[in-house]
Fold this protein.
Amino acid sequence: MTVHIVTIGDELLIGQIIDTNSAKMAQFLLEIGAKVTGKTTVGDEHDDIIGALKIASASADIVLVTGGLGPTKDDVTKKAIADFYGTGFVFHQETLERLHRILDRLGKPITDALRDQCWMPQNAVILTNLMGTAPGMWFEEGGKVLVSMPGVPFEMEYLMEHEVVPRLQGRFNPLPTVHRTLFTSGEGESTIAEYLKNFEETLPPQAKLAYLPSIGRVRLRLTVSDVDEIFVKKTVEEKFREMERLLPPEIVAGYDNDTLESVIGQTLKAKNLTLSTAESCSGGYLAHLITTVPGSSAYFLGSVVSYANEVKMKQLSVSEETLRQFGAVSGQTVQEMVAGANRLLGTDIAVATSGIAGPDGGTPEKPVGTVWIAVGNQHRTVTKKLKLGKDRLRNIQYTGFYALDLLRLFLRDLDQNA
Amino acid sequence: MTVHIVTIGDELLIGQIIDTNSAKMAQFLLEIGAKVTGKTTVGDEHDDIIGALKIASASADIVLVTGGLGPTKDDVTKKAIADFYGTGFVFHQETLERLHRILDRLGKPITDALRDQCWMPQNAVILTNLMGTAPGMWFEEGGKVLVSMPGVPFEMEYLMEHEVVPRLQGRFNPLPTVHRTLFTSGEGESTIAEYLKNFEETLPPQAKLAYLPSIGRVRLRLTVSDVDEIFVKKTVEEKFREMERLLPPEIVAGYDNDTLESVIGQTLKAKNLTLSTAESCSGGYLAHLITTVPGSSAYFLGSVVSYANEVKMKQLSVSEETLRQFGAVSGQTVQEMVAGANRLLGTDIAVATSGIAGPDGGTPEKPVGTVWIAVGNQHRTVTKKLKLGKDRLRNIQYTGFYALDLLRLFLRDLDQNA
């Protein structure tokens, strides 16, 4: 079951809107084992839309179209779809009645533009959109399906969940498909690929491994699809375990929807430990990452962002002597920041950062991108020096990632020493 | 000058990555008067890529390709492009040397996968990518241009800015085009559109107004393009001033590349004032926004992230009585947090946040999304209650935005009272 997505709208082409719909649709489709094989975006132009529909329907079983409906679009999409099928229009009374009910509730009169929305291509099956005024449309011809949905994300999501996915399942009865995901932390995509080179080569044709890299992390998703459901379940489990064994255990950071932040949170909760941060160059970003996790208030007590040296000394008790002798960007300073944060905020573990985020402030000995990070409790503190790049925002993001990863490894060592 | 964008990658089709690159590329292209007329996404499949390149190059003057270049992609894109042109490969020694320099600095050995990246199609002009390992490639044939770039957003952006845009300008010499941008803060797109309805209708055909909305902000970009350069400059200035006069002055927050954070920084520097934050529900995000601005250490001294009530009391001197009587999420608490931060960190102005970010922790009186923010100096403190939604991350982001906007208006009032 292959799918081609067509997204329509001038606003998508000129970069005014980022297309989040296709990713969301693909996720819905993945769950039912359907595969998106291509995607085309065109503006609100009749001929361009027809061209895209031709390419799409020639290359896939299912064409999902979003956008180009709605009262300000002059119904160009609906006209193009009708012309694509060589059909005329009929008035859809039910849609008009639904529009009346919506507008009555809002105390608004029905406009001509809205009334025009009730004209539908003759061969359309109408999909009721409880989230907005423009309904979805389902077409079938020559064994192929075409679905047109509004471009408003929550309207599209409603139609996918309640109308399109159930109908596609009934219509195509797709292959049983199972995914397993793990993510690694601290190694790049190419290093991971080296570990898994032979593994990938010996995967059966029903299995596929996807690499999804982000800063310092690689998400590895193994997918198995086959008519034989028992084979699928068995193969995905076996191969997933095999893959995990091939990776150094210290870089396997979590599974499925885990993130580095959520894994750290789970560990802290399980060990009943509290956390704080003392941040210079990361400027609060580290605390932000930690507090994106729901329920983080159970273990995260707070942070001191000490951008000024006075704050490092007064709040975090970094000694003037340390700052003078080694400088604010040094292993000694981040070590004292860790001790200071644990004492000040009454936490078990603290993470500290200090560095030169740039673009200015570098020296020959400590160029822009020089960052020290530290993690410690009352017994032990580990420090690490990073040599990052010249871009300020990226330096902040990388500092946040490396500090979290150092914390993850610190918590892991606690386990092993326990 | 028309452009077709081709984005390559299984991860785009399966919905694991949202394609932000095309919107960014379209924005770069808009600057030089080039128009994106279509966009195609395909997976990492040789034949699909060639199919997309054929469609793209038949329909536009320029084809911009991103993605499919990383070390785990088996160079499928490069092979497809070479086959599209019917050409072979040459080894690019300079790229190998650059890879060696990068890896030496990281203390890592060069892998086979990385070495393979140095083989390039014979007809490629190599575009040096200072942000990563995979270079960009520029092709010209039959009056058409094709450019291949890595899919990593900041690598693509670097290449667009430093290589692709200047080369396209040199190659196609588009119409003289001038943009002027301002951004508003605190009003939505539809409200702004009401203010500018008549203005837009009376714009000459050579002028175009683009709305670029983000959280709480709308960037308004006026573009004028014409063969007559004097007309362009005169028209853009006149119309821009006219547009600005039609907007309430308190919502016009900045111009051109300004951001809310940078405008606030400029004001603080000009007035020689220092700033701190005291954050509960924003969890460091506000300090992070402030410290993304280069040079922010000149006015931002630090932050106390007081996730725990003990930290609010001990560090920020919020009284136990206030917490008991009004709760941590209250106007009284954020007011005391402001005073506490100014005193503790020795700053002139402080911003405070406290709220229920969710998904849990709400009560009937204070549902999830209830947030209090405050800004104050030693003379005056203003507070504001926000009623946000149910999504944790969005609540954090909106709190950050509204707190910055309250700070902007506070600084504006200082001016008017001075």
Chain B has three domains: 2-172, 177-254, 260-417. The longest strand of chain B covers residues 177-185. The domain at 177-254 of chain B is CATH 3.30.70.2860 (Alpha-Beta Plaits).
